[in-house]
Design a protein that fits this description.
The chain is α/β, with parallel strands linked by helices. The chain is globular, with a radius of gyration of 21 Å. The protein has 15 helices and eleven strands. An eight-stranded parallel β-barrel has the order 1-2-3-7-8-9-10-11, surrounded by six helices. A three-stranded antiparallel β-sheet has the order 4-6-5, with no helix packed on it. It has one domain: Glycosidases (TIM Barrel, Alpha-Beta Barrel).
Length: 427
């Protein structure tokens, strides 16, 4: 944390646990549906204030693989405490990073990010601990799963011997230097749902969370080798792209129904790439151009999921700055608010905190006010119900004080008395 950032948080009263206001009791055994909880906090349009905690590649937590159980637990609790200090209300913890698990799953091995060896028992239950400790602090705990990513390499022999991908080699497709489950196989779709639903049954999580990875992001000069599954299951779809979108629709709609059947109080949300379709390709798309789109490139019709009510909330990753020449934050904010209008699906915005102060990013991201401008724009749109920040490491570091500025400007303590303190001389 920079000196300036530390001074701002000190002035805010960093130990304040105001994030707990209105959040569910840790002792509650049967949690209300998220819609009811949102209603109780309707007076605060920023009731959802989340941060992602990524475990893949040990990005955010644990800081490295092989730490003792006590050290891992201490780091996790530090992230939760920091979320409260920063007046957040939710933590989105990645618990199935690469077809492995941060809980004792009967379906998949222990996650490699914990011990450095996939399948090795870390000596504690990270997900169970995260749920209990988050709720004790008045935080929601959203369990973040990646449906199809198997490994960040293409060698099945490097997986633990009992891994389902080794027992069912026909389930996987190597692509772009990584290994994926084939979304075109019904047995794969059922298996990944079963693996995720085990956590829903066993733990008092507040939500199932998926990010933007369905079919993999395109890699130039490579094709996703799903010829065999298309031949077996795609007869009704002359256009393979339509078949792939159908497969993703089935994954989402089936999981939605199964979550609601398994535990009705658990919400189901998705955080897609921020562009559904570009206006040049579809008049109903956003006024953006020249980049990827979930519909065309990831075979994920995210707008359809909203319209069908298959998801309870959507967290589009609007990872561009205000005024970006081809993909403007404000333009996408307007598009997504219109997309959810009248559907009952709640809209939260994914924010690129990781870009703030990164010298590789455009000049807008070197301005500590950029992130606060995002929240100010959203504050004028009644359809926006909060934000989620990527990610926990940057919440801790806050290189140029952008997060501290946003908190001071938009997240007052419970009594509403504080506004941003005077900026320190060195800030």
């Amino acid at each position: 944390m920079t000196t300036a950032t530390g001074a701002v948080f000190a002035a805010l009263g960093a130990g304040d646990s105001g994030a707990a206001a209105g959040t569910p009791s840790a002792a509650r055994r049967e949690r209300e549906p998220e819609r009811a909880r949102e209603g109780a906090r309707a007076a605060d349009p920023y009731a959802f204030r989340g941060m992602w905690v990524a475990t893949v590649f040990n990005r955010d937590w644990p800081s490295r693989s092989g730490l003792s159980a006590a050290a891992q637990r201490a780091e996790l609790l530090a992230h939760l405490d920091r979320a409260v200090d920063r007046r957040l209300t939710a933590v989105v913890l990645q618990v199935r990073p690469t077809a492995d698990a941060l809980w004792p799953s009967p379906h998949e091995p222990w996650a490699e990010c914990l011990t450095g060896t996939q399948g090795k028992d870390p000596g504690w239950d990270p997900l169970g601990t995260a749920v209990a400790e988050a709720h004790a602090r008045g935080l929601e705990l959203h369990a973040w799963f990646n449906p199809y990513r198997v490994a960040n390499h293409t060698d099945p022999e490097r997986l633990t011997a009992s891994h389902p991908a080794r027992r069912h080699p026909g389930w996987t497709v190597p692509y772009g230097g990584r290994l994926y489950y084939d979304p075109g196989l019904p047995e794969v779709r059922r298996f990944v749902q079963d693996a995720m639903l085990d956590a829903v049954r066993r733990y008092d999580i507040d939500a199932v969370h998926w990010d933007d990875y369905f079919y993999p992001y395109p890699v130039a000069g490579e094709r996703f080798a799903d010829d065999a599954s298309y031949a077996r299951h795609g007869a009704d779809f002359p256009d393979r792209a339509d078949w792939r979108r159908h497969n993703t629709d089935l994954l989402v709609s089936e999981m939605s129904a199964r979550v609601r059947e398994t535990k009705p109080g658990v919400a189901f949300g998705v955080s897609p790439f921020g562009v559904w379709r570009n206006g040049a390709d579809d008049p109903e798309g956003s006024d953006t151009a020249g980049g990827l789109a979930t519909y065309d490139d990831l075979y994920a019709d995210t707008r359809k999921w909203v319209r069908e009510g298959w998801i309870d909330h959507v967290v589009p990753q609007l990872y561009w700055h205000v005024g970006h020449p081809s993909t403007d934050y404000a333009t996408l904010l307007d598009w997504w608010e219109a997309a959810v209008r009248g559907t009952g699906v709640r809209l939260r915005i994914g924010e690129a905190l990781y870009k703030a102060g990164d010298p590789a990013q455009p000049a807008a991201w070197q301005d500590p006010e950029e992130l606060s401008r995002h929240l100010a724009l959203a504050a004028g749109r009644p359809g926006v119900g909060g934000h989620c920040f990527f990610a926990a490491k940057e919440v801790a570091e806050d290189r140029i004080g952008a997060f501290a500025t946003a908190v001071a400007d938009h997240y007052p303590p419970p009594d509403g008395s504080a506004r941003r303190p005077a900026r320190p001389a060195n800030g």
